[in-house]
Design a protein that fits this description.
Layout lengths: L9 H14 L5 E6 L2 E7 L9 H15 L5 E4 L3 H13 L3 E5 L5 H7 L5 E4 L4 H15 L2 E2 L6 H7 L1 H9 L5 E5 L4 H12 L5 E7 L4 H8 L24 H9 L2 E5 L1 H15 L5 H11 L10 E5 L6 H9 L2
Helix pairs in contact: 1-2, 1-6, 2-3, 2-6, 6-8, 7-8, 8-10, 11-12, 11-13
Amino acid sequence: MAREVRPPTAAQFEAARAAVGANLRPTPVVELHTPLGSLWCKLESLQPGGSFKVRGAVAAVCAAVAERPDVEVVTCSAGNHGLGVAYAAQLLNVPATVVLSRTASAVKVARLKGYDIELVQEGESFAAAQAFALALAEERHARYVSPYNDADVIAGQSTVATELLEQLPDVAHLLVPVGGGGLLSGIGLVLRDAGRSVRLLGLQPARDAAMVASLHEGRAVDIVRGQTIADGLAGAIEDGSVTIDVINELGIRVETLEEPQIRAAVRTAAVDHGLVLEGSAAIALAAAELGMVPFDEGPVAMIATGRNITASLLAELIESP
């Protein structure tokens, strides 16, 4: 049975801003010079744990503690969200269990082992790991913190946009990587509530475009998946996920990119711009350099969502022609 999750309330947005503001520093925005023009890059890759996911994790764990001081949290993750929850749980002294599939990124598994958490690898897919984590949370009466289908997580991710509007007030287009849609939903809701007409473009790997298929059907759907370098954007979407309705209601467009385009963007980020980006972040740079948004309508920005890529893969991509 699908869990009933509603969009964040005004109180949850306010609490998330307070939690993130108290525990995380704003990330910088830097100008990248591309053949099409200036691209403004918000470096969420500099966050603790290496990705934006720590925002939603801090917001959700703080909300859980406020509701029940002796709370235990359980989550499922492709890696980055797990790192965010591990950081937040350690920061707030909350017991945490992070469930990953047995096929999760090696670099993310290795980094999770550095935290004082219970780490479980279960199943050969994100969907299997997610089902296990949901059952475990119910069994332990713990707070399940979804990577995306959670109002407090969505509210936490929205603080990226709150900061960006202060740093780049006239931003016209914003490129946002999409997996389960928590980041895109949070950004979209904040922009709507602020009365801002920033045009959003969500981006997914063509080999694992579950959100694109789900938006088309208006519900979470299963798809045939392939291997993608943008592993943080891969995996099944939870049945009944609130993010599908939010993205559809806001009318946000989500497009796909092919693997060679994403791989080339990881190399471009490192060689041309001196940035270490994982595939899930570089997909936004790829879209910008392919001209998927116009540069003549005002500043174009992207969210550099994470840096967690293995050294061997990064070296391979840098050396590729």
